[in-house]
Amino acid sequence: MRHADGPALVAPSANGPASPYTGRVRSRRGAGAAVLVAAAALIAGCAAPAPMIQPGSVSLDGSTPAGLEEFYAQEVEWAECGSGFDCATVEVPMNYEDPTGETIEIAVKRFNHTGDGEAVGTMFINPGGPGGSGIEMVTSTTSYFSRTLRDGYDIVGFDPRGVGESHGVRCYTTEQLNEYYETSYDLTTDAGWEAYVADATAYGEACLENTGPVMEFLDTVSAAKDLDILRGALGQETLTYFGFSYGTFLGAHYAELFPTRVGRLVLDGAVDPALSFAELTAGQNEGFEVAYRSYLEDCLAGASCPFTGTVDEAWDRTVELLDELAANPIDSGDAERPVSDSELVSAIITSMYSPGWWSTLTEAIGLALEGDGSQVLLMADIAADLDDDGNYPEDEGAFRLIDCLDYPVELDRDEITANADALVAANDLFGPYMGYGEVGCATLPFQSSAVRDPITAPGTPPILVIGTTRDPATPHEWAVSMADQLESGVFLSYDGDGHTAYGYGSCIDEAVDAFLLEGTVPDDGLSC
Q: What is the pTM of this model?
């Protein structure tokens, strides 16, 4: 399965690592490391706080929410779109506070079960992000889910609003992004700070101009309401759902909004919905440190490791290498694209998502120490989701916009700088690259009115919540916290490396499959 040989359920993107879900960085180290940053840091969303639950269209008794009857009753017209797959679109309100207003379409793709007889039911999936494509994920169903699940379930992937085929966000072109990412700012100066804020503001304005009014309604609560319409329109009395990473955040909000419609929910790589922006960023900063130290321990035990000595010494050598690349980028084989520290950090972050990438990272670091940045650049391009022609995805801004609409931030220079300095003080490798994400959100045309509260979802059936002990992007303690918050949370722990747990052939796989297919609830606290 994909976890064993790929980076993550959703490859890290160019939106900044300061997110619990995915990311690539462009901060610069050296003198004033925490204050001399490049433009990609502006796009970092840092975390997805819990949105304020919007009243008016929520059903607590299992009935169709008032004013939305026509959406739930719509007939879904499926069309074959590949062997074993069908595709369709489902209409939903753009603004749930005005369901009679403009509508948008959510694109869905169904994998038809491969077993004999009727399917057990329909299972909806979300790969994370925010901004990950469920359509892309379901297209690779055999890489993600066990044969028993594929035999038993029709599996439906969907692109959440603002993503991919569902009114995907549009911000900058690849050419504009390349220029934007290469711009550096000295944030110790007023002029540098003002330029930084101005360019972030321009990016947000471009998103609004190119995306349109749906940009204001890309929050997770709206996506959860879309998910319930998908459930109803596809004829499912209750929701069976498997969410990874950010998908756990979406699933938890669904449970809070529609407790009587919850069927079998599995949330793998959970995000703690009660943490603040700064706490989430600090948690991920620590998570990547834990993961990289685990990688270094494994590397040093092998014959081809480019480092020597202890884990601490290898850590320090990595920091030195980043400083060297910041001062003197190395050749990548492309004269126009030398490799600096930002590309190496991006490659490291990508590799922490799956131990299947560790050998590739070892080779890349070894070559970089010899002055060859070709492998690092290749990995950084994978992290940025660049295609063969060097283009970014058209909806590259979805991560930032969804993330930012899920929580409020303020453009407080002193507080933002203090938060960034604290990250550097806590971690001299990843910390310098994780700050200042607040600016990208605070300068958007629309500001979030959300609040961060625990999600309890009272009255639901058992919900499985899974954490991995050395998960870099959604630390183990976040899953513990989500399971504790949910009234019916059942916690499962995987002692391992990489982002999310399902797919490694452990007892987690067995427990999840039994739960989804048979309704068997594992023991709370199951660990392997």
A: 0.91
Report how far residue 527's alpha carbon sits from residue 468's, in angstroms, rounded to the nearest whole number: 10
Spatial separation of the C-alpha atoms in residues 492 and 407, rounded to whole Å: 28
Sequence-ordered list of residues with C-beta below 8 angstroms from that of 240, at least 6 positions apart, any chain: 121, 122, 123, 124, 153, 263, 264, 265, 516
Residues 6+ apart with CB under 8 A from 264: 240, 241, 461, 515, 516, 519
Phi, psi of 155 (to 5 degrees): -110, 125
Preceding peptide of 329 cis, ω within 30°: no
DSSP secondary structure letters along 253-293:
HHHHH-GGGEEEEEEES---TT--HHHHHHHHHHHHHHHHH
What are 207-243's pLDDT values in tens digits? 999 999 999 999 999 999 999 999 999 999 999 999 9
Question: Which alpha helices (DSSP H) does 406-522 contain, by range?
Answer: 413-426, 437-442, 476-485, 507-518
CA distance 358 to 295: 7
pLDDT at 506: 94
Going from the C-alpha of 136 to that of each of 160, 216, 266, 274, 504, the distances in angstroms are: 12, 25, 20, 30, 21
Task: Give me the DSSP letters along 68-129.
Answer: -HHHHHPPP--EE-STTEEEEEEEEES-TT-TTS-EEEEEEEEEPP-SSSS-SEEEEEE--T
Query: In the numeric block, which tokens belong to residue 106?
Result: 């959510």
Give the Cα separation of 129 and 400 in Å (integer): 10
* Residue type at position 203: Y
pLDDT of residue 276: 79
CATH number for 1-75+110-528 (one of 3.10.110.10, 3.40.50.20, 3.40.50.1820, 3.40.190.10): it is: 3.40.50.1820
Q: How big is the CA angle at 43 (ends 497 and 128), to the nearest 5 degrees?
A: 40
**Element containing residue 156 per DSSP (H, E):** strand 153-158
**Cβ contacts of residue 457 below 8 Å, gap of 6+?**
252, 255, 256, 259, 262, 463, 486, 487, 488
Burial of 191: CB neighbours in 10 Å, binned 0-12, 13-18, 19+? exposed
419, 281 Cβ separation under 8 angstroms: yes
**Token duo for residue 372:** 């060859």
pLDDT digits (tens, 9 = 90+) for 14-39: 233 333 333 333 343 433 333 455 55
Could you give the CA distance from residue 60 to residue 378 in angstroms, rounded to a whole number? 49
The predicted structure's pLDDT at residue 37: 56
Question: Checking DSSP bridges between strand 103-111 and strand 85-93, what pairing results, if any?
Answer: antiparallel
